[in-house]
TrEMBL record:
Coiled coil: none
Pfam families: 2-Hacid_dh_C
Keywords from the named record: NAD, Oxidoreductase
Matching CDD domains: 2-Hacid_dh_8
Gene3D superfamilies associated with the record: NAD(P)-binding Rossmann-like Domain
Name by which UniProt lists this protein: Hydroxyacid dehydrogenase
Organism encoding this protein: Streptomyces rubiginosohelvolus
InterPro entries: D-isomer_2-hydroxyacid_DH, D-isomer_DH_NAD-bd, NAD(P)-bd_dom_sf
Domain (D-isomer specific 2-hydroxyacid dehydrogenase NAD-binding): residue spans on this chain: 129-305
Domain of life: Bacteria
Amino acid sequence: MSHPATPRVTRPRTVLAMSGETRAAILAPEALDRLARVADLDPRLLVTDFGADDPAQRTGLHEAEVLFTGWGCPPLDPAALSAMPRLRAVVHAAGSVKHHITQDVWDRGIAVSTAATANAFPVAEYTVAAILFANKHILESARVYREARSRVNLLERFPGVGNYRRTVGIVGASRIGRRVVELLRPYDLRVLVHDPYLDEADARTLGVERTELDTLAAESDVVTIHAPELPGTRHLFDAPRLALMRDGATLVNTARGSLVDTEALVKEAATGRLNAVLDHTEPEVLPADSPLYDLPNVLLTPHIAGSQGGELHRLADAAVDELERYAHGLPFAHAVDPRTLHQQA
């Protein structure tokens, strides 16, 4: 009786390509040790510029079968790829690959993996915390208590507070959006989702209601944005759509700032009608005189929802897992599909 052939295990020649800051943050000594066990790697070689005049770099790239990339990796354009004739795979220890993966990579048939799924975890956790706090009116109640410095009549001041049977609207059934859905399952919430690529069967599997965006905006107590930054999503929440939102509703944005019309949001928030939790804004850093810094119904955070601190080690672990699969002759678990890349952040 024949048996399936055992995949051949290799130690692919691998080169690091990312900024020095990224390497220091993501690749802890334990991760580097594991990476060196999986791959044939020179840990001293770090590529930050594919065109650098460095003999050691030229030799390393010429022999490289895999690029292990992170934030700060230069674009893999034709000039860069010409220096890597043996390149077969790119393993990205971060989320989006749009900054460095070009059409030339796909044309050469190079496989690409991303740690975007691992990066979705902390963003989803931040989002769920924001949703639960928003429905409990945490910002407002904390302000009232701070001002009163005495017992607060909660039934009088906050008659509608709470998460029971509230409606949450999720814009984008992305990795992060789906993770938010999963984390919200233990709560007694109605969950609406808008995504042009989500069909009814998929919505039933997720356990959510598929709906049009205007309906979602009008019926949700909290709206959270997880759609990609595309020409068609710019100012997805403009003045007319923000006006559809319920009085007292909260807008959460952990996606890209361009999806929300900042000027329109300032006007709505300044009246006190809407609340906002914003980890991304347009511009990315608001001017020092922006009212959003000081409005009591707005919580601004400095792009902290994604992987930070110790969470960065999850990205390295996920990327090394992928490299280990490649070394065992297995397909990537989190391969990037160029046919659907335009739908992603």
